[in-house]
Amino acid sequence: MRKWNAILSMGILVLFLIHAIAGGFQLVGILSGGSQVLKILAWFMMILIVIHAIIGCKLTADTLKACKQSGTSYFKENRLFWLRRISGFSIMLFIVCHLLIFTNTTTDGIVRLHLFEGAQLATQILLVISIAVHVLSNIKPLLIALGTRGGREFLIDILLVLSVLLVGMAIAFIVYYLRWNVM
Known about the structure:
By secondary structure, the chain is mainly α. The protein contains 5 helices and 2 strands, in the order αααββαα. It has helices at residues 2-28, 36-70, 79-102, 118-145, 152-181, and strands at residues 105-107, 110-112. A hairpin with a 2-residue loop joins β1 and β2 (110-112). α1 runs parallel beside α5 (152-181), α3 packs across α4 and α4 (118-145) runs antiparallel to α5 (152-181). It starts with a helix and ends with a helix.
């Protein structure tokens, strides 16, 4: 099950990169409208995320069962484990907000987005932060699960690219907020 979860994670990561780059370009006004292919990829990514969350819940339940059977939880020693679980859960909450904000409504062929003010900006920045914590804390175990050898340099490259991308996403949300509320 862990191997399948690692493969799912890689698929989610690739689709996330496509979604983040295309979405960032749309938010800052470089690309107009969403293409049907990008929408299909986004919904496919959502399906993968749900499956990933189900597997994560199963693995967490197995861990909690083992802790109960052993009589010790070692919470302090397992902080990274809990960080991964809590950040994953927070991502799910903020994805719901993301869907509510960016699911388009069409009236007479004209695409209209929902209101994007301070609260919406805050939820999207928190989504970016949650993704950063979750992905950055899980990238090393993911590479190990996929059998990557000598991946230290590879790991640093991935972390750099993801960090730049996540900062770019946060900036795109801020630019969109400014375009919506100031311009």
